[in-house]
Amino acid sequence: MRSYFQPPIRLGSKTTQLVSHIASVDYIEVASEIEALLLESRLIKKFRPFYNIASKDDTSPFYVHLTSSKFPKPVVNHLPNQAIAGPFLSGWTVRHILKSLRRVAPYHTESPCFYRHLGLCRPCPDDPQTTIADYLKNISRLKRMLRGQFKSVLHLAVKAQDFETATALRDLLLRPVSPEEYVVNPNLLCDRRQEALESLHLALNTWPLVRIEMYDISQLAGSAVTGAMTVAVNGQLSPTNYRHFTIHSGRDDVARLKEMLSRRLKTDWPTPDLIVVDGGKPQLSIVNWDIPTIALAKKEEIIYTPSSAIKLPRSHPGLQLLQRLRDEAHRFARRLHHRHRSLIIK
Q: Considering only 4-18, 143-157, 175-189, 241-255, which range has the smallest mean pLDDT?
């Protein structure tokens, strides 16, 4: 809960708007981690929460289906129709649930069945003594647990004196909860990106930032000079927009950077909201576009603008975004640089 109630600059616009619409907070107490995950899935399916980014994306939620084979098994996909459970917000969650429930209701996977020796495929279809009826009892038990009917499964197991199943279910429900395994705020990553953009926008006193481009030069003793452009869109690195440049100017980094930027200007790629060059004032002086431009010095992590030098704390989200972009530019430029160097050595 605490992750939702922070200053707006840390939340980002999406969660800030969500919090502004909260009228009250309620909770439902359950006995175990697995029950909580399944309850979350059922509530999302019932209420379709508007601000839940995963449930609004048709490609994101995960569902559990049963195959139509003689010995059915659960499979995970993104198809809501005829699902026996879902939606789940992450693949990890649904795989974790199925793995846990398999200890109570074993099922086969059509793999070489060493699971049989672990008690995770019992009764096993590979065993000639296994009947379909016995196997389907496990599948029925699995479906009830996916619907949250744990007490019913436990009651039936005790009534049938199936104490092995009852013990396995008891151990499952008593498993310690590990809250560090979960993303508490489903909008957390989106909020962090928004926080970085807004804090950088305020620090630079520029217009809102959507597309940021970073430029870097890599060389080997003056030969095999390469350049790289890395891009962040809405605060997220966008590798599909990265570009390599083979540099032909043979003087210094400033001239090489000027060549790369002039070639970039001639393209029809989307116009950036901010240009970042790796270096200091000399590198900054060559850019004369009508686009906000800054230079990021390596050692002191000082941001140079045409009129000032800005020293942000290392914990500043905007600075951290620029550092990630610069590190990506170094890595990306070196990749082409090493390719050129290997050709020279040959």
A: 175-189
What are the tens digits of pLDDT across the range 26-54?
A: 888 876 777 787 888 888 888 887 766 54
pTM score, whole prediction: 0.51
Among the three residues 162, 181, 200, which one is the final residue of a domain in this structure?
A: 181
Query: Which stretches does DSSP call E strand in the chain?
Result: 62-66, 74-77, 85-88, 211-220, 223-233, 236-237, 243-246, 274-278, 293-296, 302-304, 309-311
Residue 256 lies in a domain: yes
Q: Which CATH number fits the domain that encloses residue 300?
A: 3.30.420.340
Q: What residue spans of 160-240 are helical by DSSP H?
A: 163-173, 188-204
Given a cut of 60, whether residue 345 has pLDDT beyond it is no
149-163 pLDDT, tens per residue? Answer: 888 888 777 777 777
Of 224, 204, 228, 240, residue with least CA distance to 278: 228
Cβ-contact 230, 214 below 8 angstroms: yes
Domain boundary among 145, 160, 181: 181
Do residue 146 and residue 194 come from a single domain?
A: no
Question: Does one domain contain both 303 and 205?
Answer: yes
Crossing angle of helices 13-20 and 188-204, in 10° steps, is 110
- DSSP element (H, E) containing 339: helix 317-345
What is the domain range of residue 224?
Answer: 189-345
